[in-house]
Design brief:
Blueprint lengths: L3 H36 L4 H14 L18 H13 L3 H24 L5 H4 L2 H12 L9 H21 L5 H17 L4 H15 L8 H20 L2 H12 L8 H5 L2 H17 L7 H20 L4 H20 L9 H21 L7 H8 L6 E5 L3 H4 L2 H4 L3 E2 L7 H11 L5 H6 L1 H17 L4 E5 L5 H6 L2 H6 L3 E7 L2 E6 L1
Parallel strand pairs: 1-2, 1-3
Antiparallel strand pairs: 3-5, 4-5
């Protein structure tokens, strides 16, 4: 039987052998992540936000000249990326990737700085856990790389590190308090729903520390102040968000929702449950509850509530909850004592299970719509086309227009107002009087289409008859029909008509 000294020597030998290949492993992860950015199509919403940022830098006003339902913070990273691209003469897409990689490195560096004085520093800064975290942040998002949920996960990690210290009752340095407050505040400013994750972290930390004062820790006040300052800035500098966008979101956009029971049986829920089960199984015989794993799982649960509360069931909405559940599994595995033979099999089983869950996550978050055939047909019509896409499906126009280096002829990403009202009336979500009341929003969208069309007649018009009846609607409208008279039908691909100005 091994003595304590022999176990210590064996442990150090294992750590030395592991560190010899962890550097190359992290390099492989970075190379794989960069390769994915080169091969995978640009996310549809990231493409749109790059266009929004370009227009804002050119002098157009958000929520006036550009129709967008998200708060300004949602576009901050993309605005920085476009400004950087113009300053150093790069494509905005490449600048966005570089900036997100840099933000990831910054976030993980801040996590290390927060934890460097903790008793957990050796375990939480272990190279294997760092590699696992890097893979979850840079590879797992796949097609959803750069989405707001992806950015929110990156920004919340320093705050999560401080809440882990709070849960353990450890001392938090003043600099760490400021970092956590800014981290949590920025995260919640992306979307109000993200307050669930921050709130659950605080509650979990207070419960594990058995100290109600954690609820009123200084970083929480800093985060709340930052959120209030952000709201005040929106009111002062973007008043149209409250006068134009909020009523539109309240009356129309929120009608676009999936039933909660349907959301609860999606694959991301299964992935989250599997990650949570790993944490609970590894901790069932632990002498002391691992604060890092359970606080991270609480943050994941908060993002799960956000996923369900948004009632869309879209893949990228689920990314933070799945990634944090898998990170919590890794943290729970790192808490297992491997100096004893009995502690080896859980780590091996956890590694295999986590690898399977990681692959399943990558497959789920790689869901995108293939429009390459449509793009090829449009490309044959001439270089750098100006385009108008009459559709509620944003994926048809974006990021195709950026790939072709064309010009987007519209103030909004897709024409979803009419489609949401039409579908809601069709499936009985709204009654006839409500539909009539919402016609003012539909008419405003139609007026925007006509105004944008007349201001800059597009070279190419795409009409989506696959997902809706846009062809019939356009041809039944005298003004739109007249605007389309100079255009000839070139090709129809998967129900999408491609028209060129003759």
């Amino acid at each position: 039987m091994m003595t304590e000294t022999e176990r210590g020597l064996a442990q150090r030998a294992r750590e030395a052998s592991q560190s010899a290949f962890l550097g190359p492993v992290i390099c492989i992860i970075l190379v794989a992540a960069a390769w994915l950015r080169y091969t995978l199509p640009l996310n549809v919403d990231v493409s749109w936000w790059l266009l929004v940022s370009e227009r804002m830098l050119d002098g157009q006003r958000l929520y006036v000249d550009i129709l967008e339902t998200n708060p300004p913070m949602a576009g901050s990273v993309y605005l920085l990326a476009v400004a950087l691209a113009r300053a150093i003469h790069l494509r905005p897409e490449l600048a966005t990737t570089i900036l997100i990689f840099a933000l990831t490195v910054l976030s993980l560096t801040l996590v290390w700085l927060v934890l460097r004085t903790s008793a957990l520093r050796n375990r939480l800064t272990d190279g294997r856990l760092a590699a696992w975290t890097a893979a979850l942040l840079l590879i797992a998002p796949m097609y959803d790389f750069g989405q707001r949920e992806h950015l929110a996960l990156i920004t919340v990690l320093p705050a999560l590190a401080v809440y882990i210290l709070r849960a353990r009752g450890e001392r938090v340095l003043p600099a760490a308090v400021l970092i956590a407050g800014l981290s949590a505040g920025v995260t919640m400013s992306f979307k109000p729903y993200f307050a669930f994750s921050v709130g659950f972290c605080i509650l979990a930390a207070a419960a594990q520390a058995r100290d109600w004062r954690v609820l009123f820790a200084l970083e929480n006040w800093i985060a709340a102040a930052l959120v209030l300052i952000n709201a005040a800035c929106i009111y002062l500098f973007f008043p149209e968000y409250f006068t134009i966008i909020y009523p539109l979101v309240r009356d129309v956009y929120l009608l676009l929702k999936a039933p909660v029971p349907t959301i609860l049986v999606t694959l991301p829920m299964g992935l989250w449950l599997a990650g949570a089960a790993i944490v609970l199984l590894l901790q069932r015989k632990a002498h002391e509850r691992d604060a890092a794993a359970f606080t991270t799982l609480a943050a994941s649960l908060g993002f799960l509530v956000s996923f369900v509360a948004q009632q869309k069931g879209w893949g990228y909405h689920a990314y933070p909850m799945v990634a944090l559940a898998l990170l919590a599994a890794g943290l729970a595995a790192s808490a297992v004592d491997t100096s004893r033979d009995v502690g080896r099999w859980p780590r091996v089983a956890t590694a295999l299970a986590s690898a399977v869950l990681f692959v399943q996550s990558c497959l789920w978050f790689n869901g995108s719509v293939d429009v390459q055939q449509i793009e090829a047909e449009v490309a044959r019509l001439g270089p750098r086309p100006s385009m108008l896409v009459l559709s509620a499906a944003a994926v048809i126009g974006h990021p195709m227009v950026r790939t072709l280096q064309g010009t987007w002829i519209s103030r909004q990403e897709a024409f979803w107002v009419r489609e949401i009202v039409r579908r809601s009336q069709k499936d009985g979500t709204i009654d006839l009087p409500t539909a009539r009341r919402l016609e003012s929003y539909v008419e405003r969208e139609r007026a925007g289409i006509i105004a944008d069309f007349r201001k800059q007649p597009p070279d190419v018009v795409l009409i989506d008859n696959q997902n809706s009846d846009w062809g019939d609607w356009v041809r039944s409208d005298p003004e739109l029909k007249a605007l389309l008279e100079p255009y000839v039908l070139v090709q129809t691909v998967d129900g999408v008509e491609i028209l060129k100005r003759s």
